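User
New here, explain this?
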Amino acid sequence: MAKTAHNLSVQYNSIKLTVMRDEKSTLTDLVCYHCGEAVSGIDLNFDDKHFCCVGCKSVYQILAENKMCNYYAYNDTPGQRLNESKHYEYLDEESIITQLIDYKDRNYTIVTFYIPAIHCSSCIWLLEHLYKINPAIYSSRIDFLKKEVTISYKHQEVSLRKVVEVLANIGYEPAISLQDVVKEKSSSVNKALILKIAIAGFCMGNVMLFSFPEYFGLSGIEQQFQYLFAWLNLAFSIPVTFYCGKEYFVSAITSLKHKHINLDTPLAIIIAVLFIRTALSALLNDGPGFADTLTGLVFLLLMGKWVKQRTYHHISFDRDYRSYFPIAITTLKEGKEKPVAINELKVGDRLWIRNGELVPADAILMKGDAWMNMSFVTGETEPQQKVLGEIIYAGGKQLGEAIEVEVVKLPSQSYLTGLWNKEHYQDNLKQNFNDSVAKYFSVAVFIIAFAAAGYWFFQADTNKAWAAFTAVIIVACPCVLALSTPFTLSAILSVFDQKGFYVKNTDAVEQLAHCNAIVFDKTGTLTSSENAKIYFTGVLNQEEEMLVVSLLHHSSHPLSRQILKSLTTGKFYPISKYKEIAGKGIRGVVNNRMVYAGSERILPFHITTNKQSGVHLVIDSTYKGCFVVEQEWRKDLQHLVSKLEKRFSLKVLSGDTNKDEKALRTIFEPTTDIRFEQSPRQKLEAITNQQSNGERVMMLGDGLNDAGALKQANFGIAITDNINNFTPGCDAILKGSSLNYLPKFYQLSKDGLKIIKISFAIAIAYNCIGLYYAVQGTLYPLVAAVLMPISTITIISFTTLATRFFARKNKLT
C-alpha cells in the first residue's frame, strides 16, 4: 500500500513538473531557439519553441509574422537578444538626423549604420530583407567586412527613429555616433583580434612549458606529472579552440551550408582534429596530445590575419588619401574662379558647378537653377529640381546651367570613392583566378591528407597517420595562394595613384593588362585645353561678347573652356533654358536673347556662306561667325602613338569635323581607322563591333560625350585637365599631363600578372616540398604551423618588392 502511494506521488510530481514546464518554469537543459543561450530563468514558449526572454520571443514573432523564419536556416541560433531599455527619442530631432544621414531628397533618405552584431550569413540574409518587415525600407545593402548596412527608405512613410527601432527589434541595434564610425570601429575590431592573439599566445606559452618533459625526454622521470600536465594542456586548449578559433568554425560551417569550400574550411577541420586528439589523449592517459600544435597553430594563424589586416588597412588608407575623384573643383573667391583640389576644400567655400559636373561635397544651393541627376547615388534617373537654400548632397550631377553652391560639410572622399566602387555599376562580375584555384586546391589537399592518413593506418602506425594528416592540411593551406593577387594588384594601384592614374579597383587592373586595342577621342584627349590658338571669323560688339561669355561660362566642355580664355570680359548675364546636347553644342536664353554655340547640327538654320569647322555662334536668328580652335596636340603625342602602335590596334573616333585629319595622318599610321563627326551613339556602336570581333578595347575620352563608349569598353579611361569631370561608368581617371605614361601603366599591369604567376609558382613549390615530408609523417605539425605564416609573409614581401622593382624598371617611381 505504501509502495502504491509512493508511486502515485511520483506520478503526481511528474505531471506537476510537466505542467510547470508548459507554462513558466526554471530550466537548465533547454536553449533559446533564437539566441542559443541556455534558458536559465523562465522558459517562454511560442510555436512549440523555447525562448530565454521576452526579447528573443518578440524577435521570433516579428520574423514569423513576416514569413521570414528562413533566417534560422542560415545558421543555428544566430540571433541577438533584444535590448528593450534603449530609447531613441533623440532621433526625432532634425539637427541630429541631418548629421547622421548620407543623402536625402523629396522622397528618399539613405543612411549607413555600423552594426556590431553582424557575424554570419543569417545576419546578411535578414538585414537584406528588411523591406519585408517594413515596406517603406526599399533597399538595404550589407558590407560584411565593415559590419555596415546602408539603408534607403521613404522618409514620408517611416522615420529614421522607426528604422533604428526595426533594427533594434530584430536584434541588430546600430552603434550610432556622429563621428567617423568606420574608422572608430575598425580599431575596436583590431582590439578584439589582439585580445585573441594575447590569449592564444599566453596559452601556447604555458602549454609549451608543461610539454618540456616530453620535449627533453624527461617523461619517464616525471611520470607522476604526465597525467596532470595532459589535463592542464587540455584546459589551455579549450579557450584557444572555442574562443580564439571560433571564427574559423563559423566561416567553415557557413560555407558548407552554401555548398562551398572556403579557405577557412581546412583550418577549422584541423583545429577540431587537434582538439579531439588532445582530449582523447588526456582521457585515455596515452600521452601529451597535440595541445602545443593546436595553440601554436591558432596563435600563428591569428598573427597572420593581423598582418594581412594591417597591410590591407594601409593600402585602403593610401588610396582614400590620394585618390581624389573628381581631381579638382572650381571655387569662387572674390568673384574669380580658381581650381582647387578636393582635399583642400573647406566649409563655407563657394563652388561653381557647371553642366555635367559632379557636386563633390554636401552643399547649399546659393545661385542658379539646379536640376540634379542623382542616379549615381540612388539609381533614380529622373532629375530632381533644387530650390535656393536647399541642400545638395555629394554625388549629384548638374543638368543645365551652372550653379553656385556653398560647402556645408567637408568632402568625404571615402564616400565618393565608395560610390565609384559600388558593384552595381559593374555589368559582369568575374571570379578571380586565385579564387578558383584556391577552391580546387582545397579539395586536392583533402584528398592527399586522407590518402596519407589511410596509408599509415594500413601500416598500423597510428601516430604517423595523425601526424601526416595534420601536417598536410597545415602546410598546404591555400590562403598563401589567395594572397598573391590582391596584394600585387593593390601595390600596383598605389603606384598608379602617384602618377595621376586612378584605377577603380584591382579587377580593373587585370582588365587593363588584357587589352589589345585602343580607341581615342580627339578633343580633350589627343588635344590639350591649355594653350589652344583661337580666332573668331566674325565681329562681336561688347554686348554680344558678354552674351557669349555668359553662355559658355556654364559649360564644362574643353572647347568652351578654351574659348572663354580668349574672351576677357568678367561680367555675366543671367541665363535660363540652358541645354547642352552631347556632341553638338549648347544653347540658352541669355539676358532675354537666345544664343546658340556649337556645331552646325545644333543651329536653328542651315549655313550656306561659312563652312569652317569650329564653334558656330548664333544670337537670336542672326549668324555671327565661328570660333576656329587650332588645337594644340598633347606633348610628345607622336612618340606616344609610335609606342602604342607596336602593341595595339589604334583607332580615332572624333565628334569634330575632319579639319585635323591631315595632322592626325602624320601622327598615326596611314592605315589607322580615323573617323570624324561621330555621335556618342556611333562611338558606342564602333566599340561594340570591335568587341564582337574578339578585340578587347581600351577607350580614352574626355568623359563628357564619351560616357557610353567608356562604359562599354573593356577598360575605359576618362582624361581630365583640372576640371570636375567624373564618369562613374569608366574604369579609371587619368590626368591629361600623365597620358604619356600610358604604355608604362599598361606594361606594369602586365608585369603585375607576371608577379602573380611567380607568386603562385613559389607557393606551389613550397607546398610540394612541404607535402613531400608531410605525407611521410616526418614533418611535425607544429613545424608546419610555423612554416605556414612564414610563407604568407614571404608572399606579401615578394609581391611588394617585385612591384617596386617593376615600377622602377618602367620608370614610374
Q: What stands out?
A: The chain has a mean pLDDT of 76. The longest helix spans residues 742-774.
